[in-house]
Amino acid sequence: MTQPKHIAIIMDGNGRWAKKRFLPRFVGHQKGLRAVKKVVSHCAEIGVESLTLFAFSTENWKRPKDEVSKLMGLFLSALQNEVSKLHKNNVRLNIIGDRTLFTDEIQQHILQAEHLTENNSGLQLNIAANYGGRWDVVQAVKDWSNKNPDKPITELTEADISMNVCLAEQSEPDLLIRTGGEQRISNFLVWQMAYAEFYFSDELWPDFDENSIDKAIASFSNRERRFGKTSEQVTHDSH
Ligand code: IPE
Ligand code: IPE
Ligand code: MG
Asked: From atom 3 of ligand 1, which residue's Cα is the shortest distance away?
């Protein structure tokens, strides 16, 4: 069975999970963190190389102030309480997104966590926080331009952008999972997912577990990835 090297997940449905139980939305986010832990350990165990989780989008600042501040609190407490366990499990942690909008305290913890785990050789775990796919493409172009002050923009290539977007040093996501029943990208890794296989699940994120991941991977392994070629070419090439 071909297993994806890189899985990206839009973790959606925390609010609805809570609402169904007449609980505040925040409880859904707390339970969501529990699902994150399960999925991270499982992916590490089965040998996935990279796992990228969408935790907070550039658009999520538009939510009610109280929800945003509780999400920031949860992010901080996860950085304080979970990083040493990740480190023990040989996980390498990387936070992607524009971190300048986070408090100094969160930014400090992010730097410490990345530094602590940078030489780990197990699962590469990327958390997308204040991340937007459009922001990413724009920062990639700016980065390229800063590195190449003498080159005119007409020389910019796809490869230049690919080399400067977030996660450039990792393989592109093979499988995108979105929970919660919606079938959209919501400004996630728009550049990097040009050829990802999409898998949509009606499960709400707090209910997602090891078995759910296995189902998504089983679906992935039945897909034929053609990358623009014909089916015959692909079958022939793989022999
Ligand atoms: C996803 O769950 C988590 C974040 C966006 C932070 P939601 O909070 O979007 O849950 P629903 O979509 O309202 O159920
Ligand atoms: C996408 O979920 C962002 C995250 C999971 C962090 P949203 O719930 O914000 O997406 P929309 O608004 O339904 O598209
Ligand atoms: Mg949602």
From this structure: 12
